[in-house]
Amino acid sequence: MSVELSIQNLTAGYGAQIVLRNLSLDVESGTLTALIGPNGHGKSTLLRAISGLVTIAAGQILLAGTRIDRYRPDAIVARGIVHVPQGDLLFPDMTVLENLRMGSYLPAAARLERQRLEEVFTLLPKLRDRQQQTASTLSGGERRMVGIGRGLMTSGRILMLDEPSLGLAPIIIDQIYEVVDTLRRSGRTVILVEENAVRAADIADEIHLLDHGGIAWGGTGAELSGRPELLETYLGA
């Protein structure tokens, strides 16, 4: 495998408020990388920095060897990095189909819209039945699936998911993680923010623990399971 995304000595935040401090991380192509750690320690901010949504004070981000940290967010999406943010952030008065089609607004994705729709409906069959239903009438799990589906419509090479299971019932979380696991097994590169370390350990190829804006630990799920002191210290588990 090759490194697809490389984050080097990154310092970033919101104006004068620095959140990430000298953080370095490599993500290999075709893997699922999970980011875990306490609330407020930089997991979501890291995804936003990769997407070009927060101020980068130092360091650089490279996609397949090309520096992208100076690009606008729309240009980063065009390069193939897709960010599915925390919550669903759907257009509530639009139908499921209309929300999905919003993910194919770029010319390259628009040309493949029918193909991508079929792929989304195959992966998330419930959305095929709901495609003419307005987003505001969906359940929480269905809205989350529409958010993931809209991200897949962009034809991106890297899919970043920010806590896709947040606030959902356990049975719906199982369904969401079946989808994430299918994406992983398909060879897509996935970056997953998750507070549930056990869930992350079950599914991820690599896990990185963020603490106070830096990487406190990195390894595999099996290695994390063998370090209960990490779970207790950082996650209270």
Automatic annotation (TrEMBL):
Protein name as it appears in the record: ABC transporter ATP-binding protein
Native species: Pelagibacterium lentulum
Residue ranges annotated for the ABC transporter domain, each copy included: 5-237
Keywords noted in UniProt: Amino-acid transport, ATP-binding, Nucleotide-binding, Transport
Entry keyword Nucleotide-binding: yes
GO biological process, one term: L-amino acid transport
GO MF term (any one): ATP hydrolysis activity
Family recorded in the similarity comment: Belongs to the ABC transporter superfamily.
The UniProt record lists the keyword ATP-binding: yes
